[in-house]
Write a structure and sequence with these properties.
A three-stranded antiparallel β-sheet has the order 3-4-5. It has a three-stranded antiparallel β-sheet with strand order 8-9-10, with helices on one face. Strands 1-2 form a two-stranded antiparallel ribbon. 30% of the residues lie in helices and 25% in strands. It folds into two domains: 107 residues, Homing Intron 3 (I-Ppo) Encoded Endonuclease, Chain A (Alpha-Beta Complex), CATH 3.90.75.20; 61 residues, no CATH class. The longest helix is centred in the last third of the chain and has 15 residues. Strand 9 and strand 10 form a beta hairpin. It is α+β, with helices and mostly antiparallel strands. It starts with 10 loop residues before the first helix and ends with a helix.
Length: 182
């Protein structure tokens, strides 16, 4: 199957390969690709952890699930950013989506995605938050119920791991010392 550009991924192609199920509020794949594990009738896409949204891959193009819902129902791609009315990015039902101007999106960006402003915090599909830190590689510090709690753990780990006094000490050793203090 030939890869395509984002601009070549039209609403007609999207409707040929994907369908919106309003009852479940999800996007389903309606055709089997020539290769791969994707199967017609299954929910399309995968959870994209950095954004907290589901992405649907198609021939080298990644489209967010909520954008496919909009295109499927409205017959065109959104000209503006899409906002989740209830703030729940997992709820991609068409009645929960609305277009917002770039200015309004900028004004509300902290409200729509509050976790993006907290370094070391990754939202999980379960609704919980993972604290992580980078020191040569990514180290997971734990999973927490609130973004603020995960950020607190990240800040504590950062103060110890990134201290000039601890440059020569191994990361696993320092992490074990941190976990004893939590």
């Amino acid at each position: 199957m030939k890869k395509i550009n984002r601009t070549d991924f039209t609403v007609e192609i999207a409707r040929e390969w994907f369908a919106y199920d309003p009852g479940a509020g999800i996007v389903l794949r309606i055709k089997n690709p020539l290769r791969g594990k994707r199967v017609a009738g299954q929910r399309a896409g995968v959870f994209h952890k950095p954004s907290g949204l589901r992405q649907v891959p198609f021939r080298g193009v990644y489209v967010y699930e909520h954008q496919l819902v909009w295109a499927s129902c409205k017959g065109c791609w959104s000209a503006h950013k899409l906002e989740f009315v209830d703030g729940d990015t997992a709820n991609v039902r068409i009645e929960n989506l609305r277009e917002i101007t770039n200015r309004k999106h900028h004004d509300q960006s902290q409200l729509v995605h509050p976790v993006k402003s907290l370094p070391g915090v990754v939202p999980l599909e379960s609704g919980r938050y993972r604290a992580q830190i980078f020191r040569g590689k990514i180290y997971v510090l734990g999973t927490y119920d609130s973004a603020q709690e995960a950020h607190r753990v990240y800040l504590e780990a950062k103060s110890i791991l990134h201290s000039p006094l601890n440059r020569e000490k191994s990361t696993p050793y320092l992490l074990s010392q941190i976990s004893m203090n939590l």
